[in-house]
Structure formats: structure tokens, C-alpha cells
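Q: What would this chain look like folded?
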Amino acid sequence: MPVDFQNLLDEARDLLLTGDYSRALPLYEKLVRRCPGEAGVWYEYGNAASKSRQLDLADRAWRKAVELDPRNSELIGMIGHQYQGLRQTERARECFAQAAAADPRGINPRISLAVLLEKTHRLEEARAAVGECLAIDGKDDQARYFSALLDRREGHVEAAERGLRELIASEPKHPYVQYACRYELAQVLDRTDRFDEAMRLLGEAKAMVRALTDTTLLMRGYDQSAESIRQFTASQPKNILHTWAKFFPERKREAIPPLAFLGGHPRSGTTLVEQILDAHPGVAAVDEPAAFLEVLQPEFHKSHQLSSPRVNTLRRLYIQALQQELGPSAAGKMLVDKNPSPTARLPLWLRVFPELKVLIALRDPRDVVLSCYFQNIALNSANVNFLDFDRLAKHYTDLMGIWRIVREWEGFAWLETRYEDTVADLEKEGRRLMDFLGLAWHEEQGRFHEKSGKKQLFSPTYQDVTRPVYSRSVARWHAYEKYLAPIFPALEPFCRAFGYG
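A: My prediction, written as C-alpha cells:
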């Protein structure tokens, strides 16, 4: 490459890596004009466009990259992951399939395809993709792990356990598989009442995760952020919303679709409530969209100037991002953003959306903490706290402590809904939720699992809401009481506040 082209490419890449997408994008535009045959540059151009929320441009750039290098399995697979991150499931599937076809011996594109198919509940097709992997290499760690996972999904619990135990005994080399197979086996053991062994395996898995990640750094960042949020929220008077409303009165607000926020601590039943709401023909509920964390929150903090035009701009950007994710099917519907972790940011939500309806999912805090402990999810500064019970108790009290403060504020509409009440009588609790949202109960909501089984969900609990409600997870904590006992004092005030004896 010419020196000036390489220098421009290096500059664009630096901007892309540091998150300065608005400055990176025009540089990539210059680069593809100068050298239109560089597939890798088109791929990066698409990434910059995607991060700038210019999704049509991203799609064109990625398609051009594939057109230029249709046999590059690695490149096409990376583009598939980009589409998957944007929740464009079918396009991601096409890319993984093309990447697999381009590399007849490639394990990674086939595993990526299998994972995507499993998450969209296409288990037979996922099994076929895993079968291709095993035909290529019968000892591949990823393929053996995923085969056992599919056994468990298909109800073949004994086969799943056998496969996982054999995999662990073989000492897999793949870092993810090393701990993931222990998480998966712990799920099997929990469902067959072998609680002590389940806890032992979870402990082993979490030790492996700690060895792979600088958890101290993540926890330090979390603690600083959590304390800052707590101090700000606790410092506000109960009438703060009235004060904010004076600076952003209703007459100055641009109209937006009816909007609700569904929060609570992770594993409190938020996904179940979201799916029940989404089954209503007048509701478009979104499972943990990026609109708040990637669009609204960063834009909010770019400037401390919160004039009415500025707040209206923030509202517009958020709604546009949400509708972009939902697609045309959301037109004319109430929008519900289900996002447990941003519950701690409720003051920001209410500053920008005074008319917001707030739904908070509650569940016995002891069951919540236990369920979080069982989750195998990629670490970030929030769920790094899921590695031990002490940190989990802190995370719970941090998050739900914010809610206990905010629910005392005057001037906004909120409702708490208990997981146990939904399990006991789905329609009764569902009608109460719909009344709060100003809508009537619809018979399709009682069969929410039929719709859930036909789409991809992004919560770790995507498997659980594809079947009717069940009570097995109520009071599950009793089986693990001896492990949870040390954190009972921290959780006890929340048990009392939320009605759990």
C-alpha cells in the first residue's frame, strides 16, 4: 500500500479502536474511494458505520467486503458476528453458512452457526452443524461441549451429563470450554437435586474465569461507579422530579410513542414479564436493547447543558435507536425497554422521560442471588460481581438500593411485580400489569411462550421463557441455604422491604 494510504488507514483504525466513530467514518469513506478493492477496509468501514448507527451503510459496506473476498472464511465469519451483535439474526446465519462453505474443514464458522441456531431454538439444524464439526474432528473441545449442551436442551439429561463428564476428564484445552462445561454440568446436577456437587463445579468454573481476567480491575471500576450513582441518587430530595419538570415542562416536550421501562435486578423475572408484555398486539417489548447504554447515556454525558431542545434531542436519539432495533412492526405500539442493569440509572431515565412508566420485577433476593451465581456470561464491570456470593450480595444491595430510594420520589408512575405472583397466577398478575400500562389483557399473553420460541432472545434466560410458567425455581434457595447463609444479613432488609419472610 502507498505510505499515505497506510497512514490514513492507521489513523482511521486508531479512531475506531478508541470509539471516536464520527471521526473515523469519513476517513474510511476516503479509504474505500482510494482503494475500492480492499475487502478488509470495507469491513472496517462497515464497523465504523455500525457504531455510528448508520446501519444501511454498514450493511452495504459488509456486503461489498464479502463480494470482494467471497472465499475468505475468517472475514465472512467476523461480518457474521457483527450482524449478530446488531440482532440481524438471519443475515448473521447466512454469513456463518457462507463462511463454513468457504472452509470445508473450518470448525469456528460451524460452531458460530450452531450457537446462533440454538439461540433461535432451531435445535435440529444446530445439531447438524455440530455434527459437521465432529465429522471434521471428533475430539474438538467446542463441538463436544456444544453437543452435550444440545443433549440437555433436547431433554436427554443422562447423555448430556455423560458427555460433559467425559469432556472434563479429557482436560479440554479451549479456555472457554474448560469452565463452560462445568457451568453446564452444574445446571444438570441442580435439576437432578445434586446440589453440593453443583456448587463444587461452579466454584471450579469461577476460579478458572478469575485466572483468565483481571477481575480486580473490573471490580474497582464497578465500585467507583456504583458509589457515584448511590451518592447522587441519595442526595436528591423526594420532589426532585417536580424541580426537573419545571425546566422541561410538558408543553416543551416533543411527542414520543408511549414508553415503559422494565427493570429490577438480573434474574428477577424481567425476561418472563417482557415476554408476557410482548405477546400483546399493542406492545413492542425489547430484550436488553443497546439504545440506552450505547446512545442515550453517552449523549447525555457529553454535555451538562440540559435545555429543552437538548433533552428533546436525547429523547429523539433514543427512540430512533429503539425503533431501529425493533423494525417497522413496532409502529403504533407501546415501547417497553427491558433492561435490568440500567435500573441503577433510573434518575437519568426520569430526567429525560418524565412521562415514563416504570415496572420493577421483584423476586426473593435469595433466589435472585443464587440464580445469578449459576450464570455463565461474559464478564463486564457489573456481572464480575457474580463470581462469589459476597460480591453478589453487594451488587444486589447496590442496584435495588437505588430502587428503594427512587420509589420514594414523587411524581412518576411505577409498579412492582413479583415473580412468585406471576408463577402462581399468570393471568391475574398479567392483568394488573396491563391495567398499569393502560391496556387490556389479551388472550395471546397467556400463550406467550409460543411466540418466544420463534425468536432470538438476548437474555441468558432465553431458554426458560420458551415454555409455560413453572414453579420449580420458587424458593430454590432452600437447597443451597448453607452456602447462602453468610450473606443473609445483607439481604435481610430487602427481603423485608419487598415482602419476603
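The two ends are 69 Å apart (CA to CA).
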